[in-house]
Structures are given as structure tokens and as C-alpha cells.
């Protein structure tokens, strides 16, 4: 395919329906509140202008794929042309919203792995899939085999996060916002409180919070289904991993394995208590803010044995049975001190304000201390138990964290260097933090508060030759 081509003309229908829906949803509350029909011609004008602008974009945009480059140009008043060399293309990802799926089109995003991207929006679904296969040198429909598929029972892990209460409170906030549009905010609150009859106000408020939590659980489950339904992770011929997912909006993300520097087993606190984890890619060219779109997640939250098995199949090394080296008791003391300091700071502030202003703040400080101090101690002890490091084959394993425990499985040949940090307090206790720097994922993964001598030996053995010019390392420690 070397000739110039146009985007799919059905983009005009997509734009018309999208703008019409926006006009109705945004204009109806205003029209009811103002009791005016002047918004009807304004909505018609908005839809017409939007479709006309999209027609200009469609009519004057074209693209082509040659043996050397992918090019896209827009020629109307101003002439712009963008292109990507074929040999630098590393990803070709598809996305289709419910509206796109209804019209049979999809959005194709092509990237180089260096934050250079071109977007073709939209193409016919079959054309987008064919172009993806051509750009990545794949045979259409070819695949080595699935590494993982979604088990619908995993949806039970969705509410086990801070997202559930956040969604519940957001739902109540949205309900009151809509009620305010019609001047019924106060009436809605009174009606909700009256649902519980003659119960005390405190009990009624508590029950409302329970309702918000239930709404949040339902919302979290729905969000998980929308994002991860039909999930499938495949290894394709030629060395790529492909993730397909989505219930209403479908997505297809392709990752070259030569950009992969390892994986990360992520265990948020709620999921970890339920014995679950997710698998993220540590890959070059994936920006950290892509975490918002879950573009680097290879496996959603699943039972930890399943997550460990999928991670092992991706990296080619069994990691579930690796015994990590524990860190010295001095590391536990550091976590306890920092946790208690973080918990006591607001308590002390409330005590000072209570002594100056009102006794209510003193009572609040006591209640906060009774709750926060034990929680801080438990989290600190848990964080200490989570510390560990080790090796398996050509990979390093670095684990830390409590609220978000992470086990990074990092390829040795992906480590560019080590940063060794030792504060005054660490030096007194013989501790140090060793950070492996890499051009992938977060860019740095740390062995926190390890024994200084043991950590130095571990870093030297993990990537032989890096530390010898800067530190005295025993000869036997430098051998892998």
C-alpha cells in the first residue's frame, strides 16, 4: 500500500452523533432552568459547525504507507506533513469507543517508543487492523498463543481499593450537583435523612456513608468490567506482546519485547490482603503518566499465583519461589520512626490548636491518636516485612512498599548504573539505599535500607563491572 488514502468518511456521522448527544445532555438542564427554547437553534448550529469542521479535516487529510515511511498530511490554508520512519515504529494501538463500534470504525495510534506518535482517526476496523499488521510486520491474525485471559471471577477484586469510596462520594456529590441545578439540593438532603425515620442524626449520616460505599463498590466493579472485559494477553510472532481489552470501548495495545526490561508485580494493600496482584510492564518508551490509561498493565488484578505465573511466562524465569534477602532490623526501626512521626504530626497540631481554641479539638486529637498510631505501627511493620532483594537467572528482584507493594523483576542488562545513597542516620546503622537506574518504566528501582556491605556486594554481582571503578568490592562478590 503506497498510494495516498483518506480517513473513513463515517467520521462525519460519529461527529454528528457525538455533538448532538453533548448538546442534549448539556443543554437540557439549562433549558429547564431558564425555561427558554433559544438553546435549540444554538445546538443545531453547534452540530452543523462541528460536522463542517470535521468534513474539512476529512476532505483535506490523507495518508500513505511506503516501504520507508508512514506519512500523513493536511492541506487546507496551511500545509502540514508528519511522517515516521518505518524502521522506528514500535507500536500500533487500536481503540474503538461504543460510537466508533456502532459505525464500524477504529482509531489507530502509531508510535516510535520515543514519544513520537501519529493518530489516524478513524479508519474502517478491518483497514486499521490490516495497517497495524503491516506496520509491525505481522501476518493478519497470526499469534504464538495466549499468555493470559480474563477470568470473570476476578471482578471481585475491583472494590478492594481506594477507588470504591471515592466513586461513592463522587456519585453523591454528582447527585447533589444535579439537584442544585433545579434548586432542590436542600430538599434532597432532607429526603435522604428522612428515609431512616427517627434514627439519630449520627446514625443517619453513617447509613448514608454506607450507601455511598455500596454505590462505590458497584461503580468500581462496573469500571473494572468496562476496562478489562474480554482481556487477552498474547505473544505474537516476531517478538511482540499484545493486550486486548474493553467492554464498551475496546482497546488493543502492542508492545515489542525487545523494549521490555522486565515486569512489575504490583500489590495494592486491599488486593494483597485478598491474595491478588497485577502485572505491569517495565518497558522503554512508556511514559509514567500512561499509568492513567493502564497502557502498561499486562494483567489486571488477579490471584497472586496467576499473576506470578504470567510474569514468569513473560520473562522466561520462574520467580514465585525466589527467596529474597531480608533487610536488617535497623530498617524496621527507621520505618517505625517515620510512621510514628507522620501520625503524630497532625495529632500534635490538633492538641496545640485545642489548647488555644476549643476542647473539641483536644477530643479530636485523642481519637485521631487512638486510630492513627496503631495503624502507623502496623503499616511500618508490614513495610519492613516487604523489604527484600534477590536474583533469578538474568533478572534482579527488588521488593518494597506496604500500601502499594511492588516487586520489580528487572533485567540485568537493562541496568545502566547504580546510585548509592546513605544519609547520616543510615550510616550510623550500617544501612544504604541502592537504586538501579534504567531507561524503562519508572527509570529507577531501589533496594531500600539494605545492609551496606551486603547491598554493595549484591549490586556488584548483579551487574559486574559497574561498581569496581568506584568502590572496593571483594573479588568473589563481583562474580554473578
UniProtKB/TrEMBL annotation:
Q: Which residues cross the membrane?
A: 36-56, 160-179, 199-225, 338-357, 363-384
Residues of the YdbS-like PH domain: 58-133, 392-456
> What would be one Pfam family of this protein?
bPH_2
Q: Which UniProt keywords apply?
A: Membrane, Transmembrane, Transmembrane helix
In terms of InterPro entries, this protein maps to: UCP026631 (IPR014529), YdbS-like_PH (IPR005182)
Residues in a coiled coil are none
What name does the UniProt record give this protein? Answer: YdbS-like PH domain-containing protein
Classification of source organism: Bacteria, Bacillati, Actinomycetota, Actinomycetes, Pseudonocardiales
Amino acid at each position: 500500500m503506497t498510494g495516498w488514502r483518506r480517513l473513513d468518511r463515517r467520521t462525519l456521522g460519529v461527529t454528528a452523533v457525538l455533538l448532538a448527544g453533548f448538546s442534549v445532555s448539556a443543554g437540557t438542564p439549562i433549558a429547564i432552568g431558564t425555561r427558554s427554547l433559544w438553546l435549540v437553534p444554538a445546538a443545531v448550529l453547534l452540530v452543523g459547525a462541528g460536522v463542517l469542521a470535521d468534513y474539512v479535516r476529512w476532505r483535506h487529510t490523507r495518508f500513505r504507507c511506503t516501504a520507508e515511511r508512514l506519512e500523513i498530511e493536511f492541506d487546507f490554508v496551511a500545509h502540514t506533513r508528519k511522517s515516521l520512519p518505518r524502521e522506528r515504529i514500535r507500536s500500533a494501538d487500536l481503540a474503538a469507543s461504543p460510537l466508533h463500534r456502532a459505525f464500524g470504525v477504529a482509531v489507530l495510534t502509531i508510535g516510535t517508543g520515543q514519544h513520537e506518535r501519529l493518530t489516524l482517526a478513524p479508519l474502517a476496523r478491518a483497514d486499521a487492523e490490516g495497517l497495524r499488521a503491516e506496520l509491525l510486520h505481522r501476518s493478519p491474525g497470526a499469534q504464538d498463543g495466549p499468555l493470559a485471559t480474563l477470568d470473570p471471577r476476578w471482578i471481585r477484586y475491583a472494590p478492594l481499593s481506594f477507588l470504591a469510596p471515592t466513586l461513592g462520594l463522587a456519585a453523591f456529590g454528582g447527585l447533589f450537583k444535579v439537584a442544585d441545578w433545579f434548586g432542590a439540593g436542600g430538599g434532597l438532603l432532607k429526603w435522604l435523612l428522612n428515609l431512616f425515620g427517627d434514627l439519630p442524626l449520627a446514625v443517619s449520616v453513617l447509613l448514608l456513608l454506607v450507601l455511598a460505599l455500596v454505590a462505590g463498590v458497584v461503580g468500581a466493579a462496573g469500571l473494572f468490567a468496562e476496562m478489562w472485559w474480554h482481556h487477552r494477553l498474547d505473544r505474537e510472532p516476531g517478538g511482540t506482546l499484545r493486550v486486548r481489552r474493553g467492554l464498551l470501548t475496546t482497546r488493543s495495545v502492542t508492545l515489542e519485547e525487545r523494549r521490555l526490561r522486565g515486569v512489575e508485580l504490583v500489590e495494592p494493600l486491599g488486593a494483597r490482603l485478598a491474595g491478588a496482584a497485577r502485572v505491569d510492564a517495565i518497558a522503554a518508551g512508556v511514559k509514567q503518566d500512561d499509568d492513567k490509561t493502564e497502557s502498561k498493565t499486562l494483567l489486571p488484578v488477579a490471584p497472586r499465583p496467576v499473576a506470578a505465573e504470567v510474569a514468569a511466562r513473560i520473562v522466561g524465569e520462574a520467580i514465585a519461589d525466589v527467596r529474597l534477602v531480608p533487610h536488617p532490623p535497623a530498617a524496621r526501626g527507621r520505618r517505625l520512626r517515620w510512621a510514628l512521626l507522620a501520625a503524630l504530626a497532625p495529632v500534635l497540631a490538633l492538641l496545640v490548636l485545642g489548647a488555644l481554641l476549643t476542647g473539641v479539638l483536644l477530643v479530636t486529637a485523642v481519637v485521631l491518636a487512638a486510630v492513627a498510631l496503631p495503624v502507623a505501627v502496623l503499616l511500618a511493620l508490614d513495610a519492613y516485612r516487604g523489604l527484600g532483594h534477590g536474583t533469578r537467572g538474568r533478572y534482579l528482584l527488588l521488593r518494597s512498599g506496604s500500601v502499594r507493594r511492588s516487586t520489580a523483576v528487572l533485567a540485568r542488562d537493562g541496568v545502566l548504573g547504580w546510585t548509592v545513597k546513605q544519609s547520616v542516620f543510615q550510616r550510623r546503622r550500617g544501612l544504604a539505599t541502592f537504586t538501579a537506574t534504567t531507561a524503562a518504566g519508572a527509570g529507577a528501582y531501589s533496594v531500600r535500607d539494605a545492609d551496606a556491605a551486603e547491598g554493595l556486594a549484591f549490586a556488584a554481582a548483579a551487574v559486574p563491572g559497574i561498581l569496581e571503578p568506584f568502590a572496593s568490592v571483594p573479588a568473589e562478590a563481583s562474580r554473578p
